[in-house]
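User: Could you go from structure to sequence for me? I need the amino acid at each position, not a summary. Structure tokens:
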């Protein structure tokens, strides 16, 4: 029975699915391997078989999800597209990632609060080695050369765009209450275009 479980094609995915819920609820320090095993309906030893430790399991989740985000963003950046279309695709991607992976929000917030050491390497790999940041800088710099955009620091512009997208996705429980937003899904869909309009109009030459 134990050997059969080790070679189960679904065991690893079941563990990862259960673990992200556990880490979202309790954080790395508060998460318990036995609870993850119960959630996944696998033997506790299976977790150590696949991941060796709770810390490695947590890092696997971080790496996997941010790699998926990086791949999704990379697919949306086509230099042949207009800046408006590129940034709209990126805004849609941010929204899709956090809508489908709501458990990422508390994990992301805890990582940021703790210094982000576990996210740092994978994000550097995704954003710099794959050239995502460089591509966005080139798009903004090209707009400046063509007289469409003001002489802004492209790095500052990229940070502003990311922040405009992430703030509501992360803070929506508070924002919805303060601003009395009743239909969150509808608001999020409208916000994709609003963010791009605000961002690009801020870049445009007056």
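Assistant: Here is the amino acid at each position, in order:
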């Amino acid at each position: 029975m134990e050997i059969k479980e080790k070679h189960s094609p679904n065991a690893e995915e079941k563990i990862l699915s259960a673990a992200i819920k556990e880490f979202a609820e309790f954080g790395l320090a508060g998460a318990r391997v036995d609870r993850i095993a119960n959630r996944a309906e696998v033997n506790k030893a299976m977790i150590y078989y696949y991941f060796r430790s709770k810390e490695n399991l947590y890092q696997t989740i971080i790496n996997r999800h941010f790699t998926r985000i990086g791949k999704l963003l990379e697919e949306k950046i086509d230099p042949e597209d207009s800046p408006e279309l590129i940034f709209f695709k990126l805004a849609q991607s941010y929204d899709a990632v956090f809508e489908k992976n709501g458990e990422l929000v508390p994990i992301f917030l805890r990582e940021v609060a703790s210094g982000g050491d576990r996210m740092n390497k994978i994000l550097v790999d995704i954003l710099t080695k794959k050239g995502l940041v460089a591509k966005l800088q080139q798009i903004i710099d090209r707009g400046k050369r063509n007289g469409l955009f003001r002489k802004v620091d492209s790095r500052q512009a990229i940070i502003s765009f990311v922040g405009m997208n992430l703030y509501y996705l992360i803070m929506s429980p508070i924002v919805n209450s303060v601003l009395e937003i009743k239909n969150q899904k509808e608001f999020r869909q409208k916000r994709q275009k609003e963010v791009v309009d605000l961002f690009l109009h801020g870049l445009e030459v007056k």
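One structural detail worth keeping in mind: The longest helix spans residues 154-178.
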